[in-house]
Amino acid sequence: MTTPSPSRDTTVSESAARSVNGYPMVALGVGLIAIGISLIRGAPLLGVPLIVAGVLTLVGLYMLNPNQAAALTLFGAYIGSDRGTGLRWANPLAVKKRVSLRDRNLNAPVLKVNDQRGNPIEISAVVVWRVRDTVQALFQVDDYEAYVRVQAEAAIRHLATCYAYDEADEVEAGAVTLRGGQDVVALALRAELQARFADAGVDVLDAKISHLAYAPEIAQVMLRRQQAEAIISARSKIVQGAVEMVESALKGLSEREIVVLDDERRAAMVSNLLVVLCSDRETQPVVNTGSLYT
Predict the structure, then answer these.
(1) What's the Cα-to-Cα distance from 118 to each of 122, 157, 276, rounded to whole Å?
(2) What is the distance in angstroms between the CA of the first residue and the CA of the last residue of the chain?
(3) 29: closest CA among 7, 54, 59, 49?
(4) Enclosing H/E stretch for 55
(5) What 8-state DSSP symbol labels residue 118?
(6) Cys staple from 135: which of 14, 69, 120, 150, with CB 3.0 to 4.6 Å?
């Protein structure tokens, strides 16, 4: 019985390619071709090789724009990456695969997922990323751009299940939520994206939630719940303020001896003042010409 050999790590890291400035090579290639053409009639055995050498020299030329790199492979083997700019020259037989090193934006599609409490929500994010390692981007994954898109969606889905949409009775007080803890959620999203993009040689520069809402089927119910919470909060503040105002009024009347109130008249005044101050409708004054006891 044979023991299976342990798997080997096939990850290749980026290394510098052997390349030079292309402008001298242009002059060299053109010169070889010109000399070969001039010798083709008198000495064809010398002129033809010179022309071939000049053509091969020109074939090795390639152009790189700023923030662009080229990964060179020779007969399937990686031989280095060139991050120079302008006209470059390398082995004419090497294949040059260009990779953009610029910052890119990924606007993830709106995803419908369940949050930590199981409520269906809609969520999306904008991710700023760029290629860090050209070798991993080209050879570690099949298509690094598609890889980034798929892994970003997976990370956003996983993030949504780790947090509740907003605070509620079922959520522990002070817990981070998707709506209330945007900075913390953004850091968590960036960390997860970086872990997922590492195999593709991609760095995450920024990640922010761009869309967050309840799913349409529960949006109206949740809106009424939020309205109810707002009404309760407002009513609580109104009652608290009314009690303080009534207390201040009774204290002022007592200190200035404007009127002496027994417990029953005091209770009636408190009741009337609270009705006036806490009512959500305009009150109508009533003139009492009789006595409280008649």
Answers:
(1) 12, 13, 44
(2) 109
(3) 54
(4) helix 44-59
(5) S
(6) 14
CA atoms of 98 and 83, how far apart (whole Å): 10
Q: How many residues does the chain have?
A: 294
Residue 156 structure tokens: 């956003």
Q: How far is it between the farthest Cα atoms of the chain?
A: 140
Site of tokens 């008649």: 294
State pLDDT tens for residues 228-281. Answer: 666 667 777 777 777 777 777 777 767 776 666 666 766 776 776 666 666 666
Q: Is 235 helix (H, G, I), strand (E, B) or coil?
A: helix
What's the pLDDT tens digit per position in 21-35? 999 999 999 999 999
- Tens digit of each residue's pLDDT (9 = 90 or more) over 165-218: 877 655 566 678 888 888 999 999 999 999 999 999 999 999 999 999 888 776
- Tokens (6 digits) for 248: 């201040």
d(CA 292, CA 85): 96
